[in-house]
Amino acid sequence: MAPNIHHTPLVPTTIEDNRIRCAILGTGMMGQEHISYILGYSDEVRLDFLCDPFEKSLTEARRLIMDSPYHEPKYLSNEEELLASAGEIDLLVIASPNYMHTPTLLRWGVYNITILCEKPVSVSQDQHDELIAASKLPEWSARLWIAMEYRYIPAIAKLLSLLPEIGELKMVTIRENRYPFLHKIGEWNRDRSKTGDTLVEKCCHFFDLFRLITRKEVDLSKVRALAQRGINYGHENNQFDVPILDSAYVTMPFRAEDGRCNTVGCLELCMFAEGSRHQEEIIVTGSKGRLEAYLPENKVFMYRRPTMEEWQDRSIPPPKSCIREQVFDCSNVKDIHGIAEDIPTHGGYHYCSTAVEWYYLLAAVQKYKDGSKFQPHVSLSDGLKAVEIGIQATSTLADGMVSDCRDI
């Protein structure tokens, strides 16, 4: 199923050959979203290779290309064929199933190319450790940018910009109320061995946001989780012995550089909440106020705590007159991110955040080509730390803190 695409291709009258040469490995749902945005930046990047072993996925990707004023890329069904053309690639997008991300990075890391790798960058402790070791070897040459599109969602970006207004951060709550996982080829996203389970597969996005919001690291030894497994998918026939997690609470403290843990976080996930008013909610409470971001409403609400002068009689609740609310409409992506140039405007699956991700990625790649240092917004270390939190949270469930509802 392709994104709801309305092309606004930025095609110049003369296209020179110094555009960034791009290849996409994996042309399923996320691969197609990336294709759609690449088409919108066709004055900066050209799509030379599409690779996927499944003909249906390649056919759907080809349909996107056919609908655009764009040259025809090479269509490959074997990664080995793509590897043979590594010297013709500046930027590789890895959008294959999650369990393939680390093995793919290990093969491509020895090439002098930039790689945009979809999350999660690994799905197990073994993959995590193997990737760290490989990235430290002298032959490792690739430059990595881990795809964390949620960072660029307009309401989330606005919330991040307002954090200084609410004082010292004390509590961060992220809630996702959504529909079950969509069906993918071979149901790989319902196989725990191929995803690391839901707290790694899905929630690494949110663990990345926790780190980004707090600017602190999670104390992994104190991460705790309570979860339920796939019984809540009642209308589906589960083909695996152990179903994936479909609801969870994860709590975590954040440790500052001075060693103090004075900020706490809670993730709430429910994957059988179709029709919920808000699919994502981010609530950040500080010493001076509170921020609330809601999606898909795409608004941020800011509240400032009343001062002692405004709320003098503490034997009664604060007067409504001293509760100050500001509402920020985040529907204009360019305004929120301060981008003057035109960017592709279709929604895709992530509130147009992938367009912003590509805007910054292409700028970073071009700066590198011009002789500057490559500076990713989301490094390999960032991607791995998000996975670490998910792995740790999942591991706590082995202590019996998981239920299939039959014992409740």
TrEMBL record:
It comes from the Eukaryota. GO terms for molecular function: nucleotide binding. Pfam families: GFO_IDH_MocA, GFO_IDH_MocA_C. InterPro entries: Gfo-Idh-MocA_inositol_DH (IPR050424), Gfo/Idh/MocA-like_OxRdtase_C (IPR004104), Gfo/Idh/MocA-like_OxRdtase_N (IPR000683), NAD(P)-bd_dom_sf (IPR036291). Residues 165-315 form the Gfo/Idh/MocA-like oxidoreductase C-terminal domain. Residues 20-134 form the Gfo/Idh/MocA-like oxidoreductase N-terminal domain. This is Gfo/Idh/MocA-like oxidoreductase N-terminal domain-containing protein. It comes from Cylindrotheca closterium.
